[in-house]
Amino acid sequence: MGRLRAIVIGLLAAWLTGCDSQPKSAEQVQAQARTHLQSLSSAGLLAGTRGEVQVASVRPVTPVATRWSSAGEPFWWAELKSGTGAPAGYLAWQANGQHALLDFSLEGLTELAAPSAKALAGVPPIQQFPIKGPDGQPVASGCVPTAGGSLMAFWSNRGTFDWQADDSHEGLVRRLRDRLPMMVLADAEGYTDRRMALAGAMPDALVAGLRADATQYRVSVDIKLVGYSDQVLRTEISEGRPALLMCNVLVPRKPELTWGHAVVAVGYADVAGKSYVGIIDNFYVCQQPGTVRWIAADRCSALVLVRPTQ
């Protein structure tokens, strides 16, 4: 009898899985989006005027293979709107399985203090910008030095040192970039609208570059590279220290694409039993600068910790 019951349960599970792979009705998908909004509200992320956020539109996304990821599973992408109809962010969640939330952003959420979520304000949201490459053609400043520049600017004038040293934000990125062995990569997938060449650097090179810059400008900081850990990140955020984060995430402007990315981690949140990391993304232009983007913690791989010693 027990074996028969197990067979019946297995057949039912297989049938449900098969049904789950079928297209959902518009009503079902809208209901999933509303469920995710309710989870965000319960986690304290939709306080104040953000409580009026609604789903504006939903579309299916089929990920394509890139140099950094396989094609992946399909997901839903919802654009959000405020009570006045203005853009209010987005949601991305699995099309199949548990329909888990993958990624989201809520316009205007730049700082947060809730029982299960926290986000630090004050990290300059420097965006990647074009520079002249070795061949004279434009190339992206790169996520690694751009994220590093944002964190250096955050610590400037905090404590007893000025890490920025009168440089502009762009100058700060260029200064750090000059210390890194940058790799120039053709934009084969079309991440940028005009396929401008991309640029990257390794995490250990970033650590060495930050240490060299800190030494030159007499900035007293301890810098180290560690594997990603929820507990380590939460400790840093709770102590008021953003961290540099290495991750593999979708690209909000073209969500069918994913890539390896470097950003500044500024927060954490528990939503519907899953852990998310709040980031300042240097390749995501928000309506309101400083808006935090949230990504699933299981997409994170490493942290560069920057801790002032004075």
SSE order, one letter for each helix or strand: HHEEEEEEEEHHEEHEHEEEEE
Q: What is the number of beta strands?
A: 16
State the name of the first-level CATH class of the largest domain. Answer: Alpha Beta
Radius of gyration: 21 Å
Shape: globular
Fraction of residues in H or I helices: 25-40%
CATH superfamily of the largest domain: Streptopain (SpeB)
CATH fold title of the largest domain: Cathepsin B, Chain A
In short:
With 310 residues, the protein is of the alpha+beta class.
Structure explained in plain terms:
With 310 residues, the chain is α+β, with helices and mostly antiparallel strands. The chain folds into 2 domains: 2-109, Nuclear Transport Factor 2, Chain: A (Roll), CATH 3.10.450; 119-308, Alpha-Beta Complex (Cathepsin B, Chain A), CATH 3.90.70.50. Helix content is 26%, strand content 33%. The chain has 6 helices and 16 strands. The protein has helices spanning 2-20, 26-42, 143-155, 169-177, 203-216, 230-238, and strands at 54-61, 75-81, 87-94, 101-106, 112-114, 117-119, 130-132, 138-140, 183-185, 198-200, 221-227, 243-251, 254-271, 274-280, 293-296, 300-308. The strands form 3 sheets. Strands 1, 2, 3, 4, 5, 6, 11, 12, 13, 14, 15 and 16 form a 12-stranded antiparallel β-sheet that branches. A two-stranded antiparallel ribbon has the order 7-8. A hairpin with a 2-residue loop joins strand 5 (112-114) and strand 6. Helix 3 crosses helix 4.
